[in-house]
Amino acid sequence: MKRIVLGVAAAAATLAGPAAQAATKTCLTPAEMNGLVTYFLPQVIDGVVETCSPHLPEDSYLRTGLTVRADELRGRADAVWPLARAGFIKIGSGKNPGDADAMLALSDDELREKIDVGFVETLGIDLKPGGCADVNDISETLASLSAAQMVEFVAVTFAAVSRGDKRMASCPRAQGNAG
User: Fold this and answer.
1) In this structure, is residue 176 part of a structural domain?
2) 54/58 Cα distance (integer angstroms)
3) Smaller CB count within 10 Å for the chain: N or C?
């Protein structure tokens, strides 16, 4: 799971250049983490489905229901974009304030295009066929949650594992509890 979190950080850092791979100066609030997860989870799901579909039965949840969840989340991308954008800028700013300025200078459409392409190229989900059944079982277990609950679960998990990370630090619990 931490690999996916770091993949998001690497994607944003790639967009802002080499200096962005240095430690971030600010942390991601719970709301920004939630926005990032909501924005990128459909792409993560698409990658997992593409990798695992050939290795699972046709009636598996991953092949029959997970893409529906991805589409539901994709429909929320515009609504969460302001939070996701703020998170990307924090991640991508690195030690060089000019990187954040360059990202801020882009229109929303330009930044989204760069992030979407950069994320897809750098995510590189390292999922072996043998792990697909486990991913299917986890996904099916989470299926009873609403899309918002699933995002919150993933965002809280990412925040916990990335707290103190040098590339994508989540805010300390006491600092960002309310989002």
Assistant:
1) no
2) 9
3) N
For 116-149, what is each residue's pLDDT tens digit?
Answer: 877 656 666 678 889 999 999 999 999 999 999 9
DSSP state of 134: H
Beta bridge partners of 170: 28, 163
Q: Is residue 59 part of a domain?
A: yes
DSSP sequence for 69-133 = HHHHHHTTHHHHHHHHHHHHHHHHHTT-HHHHHHHHHS-HHHHHHHHHHHHHHHH-----GGGHH
Cβ partners under 8 Å of residue 129, min gap 6: 51, 52, 54, 55
Residue 132: count of CB within 10 angstroms of its CB: 20
For 26-55, how does the pLDDT look when each residue is reduced to its tens digit (9 = 90+)? 789 999 999 999 998 998 898 899 999 999
By the 8 A CB rule, do 49 and 41 touch?
A: no
Asked, for residue 49, whether it belongs to a domain, the answer is yes
Range of the domain at 66: 2-171
Whole-angstrom Cα distance, residue 52 to residue 176?
36
